[in-house]
Every structure is written in structure tokens, then in C-alpha cells.
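task queued by scheduler; priority normal; single chain, no ligands, no partner chains; default sampling; output format set to C-alpha cells
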Amino acid sequence: MRVHICAVGRLRKGPERDLYDDYLTRFDRTGRALALGPAQLIEVEDKKGGGMAAEAMLLGRAIPDGSLVCTMDERGKLMSSPDFAKQLGTWRDQGRQDVAFVIGGADGIDPGLRGQADASLSFGKMVWPHMLVRVMLAEQLYRAASILSGGPYHRA
């Protein structure tokens, strides 16, 4: 199952980018044997300042056809890491070829796009900077692959 991270904005060089790249490399390596991955980042930018509606249009175009869409949203479902791993495995086992995790901009995700999603996930009641959400998602993808493979990374 291919993983697409569709996000508003560009993740520039720096510690966040280094962490993101490291965790996605680990995910790709660990997930390959589990039919998870590869993962790719699709970044969109609203250069005209059209707000959430314009971002939603760009994100909608970035999501591959037929993908299961999961928004990253403070109103989404709270899951433990093992539950997230199980969910990824379920989507894969249901024959999903693509899953797209959607990360909005500074103002979040347009309600129309949020309403079209198949699933929504939250990293807690706090609001996280959208650039950090990418890093956190990449780490959780790697952790999920490690859990599903029986690896030692997740200690619970």
C-alpha cells in the first residue's frame, strides 16, 4: 500500500526536514516486507493567498485517484500507536492500494475537504504546527511498521 503525505507548504532544510527524512527512510525500509510503502511527500502551496478553500483545491488535486483519504485534524480520532498500526494493516489487508494523509496549512483543513475524508486522525487535543505534524506522522508510520513487523522500536 503506497502512502502519500499531501501537505500545504514546503518543509525547508533544517532539523524538522532531517527528522522527517530519517523516519520516512526507516518506514520505507521496514514497511517494504509488509507491503507498506513507499511513502512520498506531495507539497502544495497557495501562492495567491486564497485561504483554506484554495488549499483544499490544491490538496484535492494532489491526492491520487482511488486513495483512502485520512485527514490529520485536531477533531480526528485519537489512537494509540498499536491501534494506528492495526488500522494501517487493516487498510492494507482490505486491498487499499493508496492511502493519502492530508495535512492542512496554518489554518487547518477546509471543512468541505474534511467532510469528504474516509478517516480523520488527531495527535491530541493540542494544536500542532503543521510542519511538526509531518514529522510526527512520519515517526508514527515507522513505529506502525515496526509494530507490525514485531520489531523492537516500540516499547509498550
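post-processing summary
- The longest helix spans residues 130-149.
- The helical segments are 15-31, 51-62, 81-93, 111-116, 130-149.
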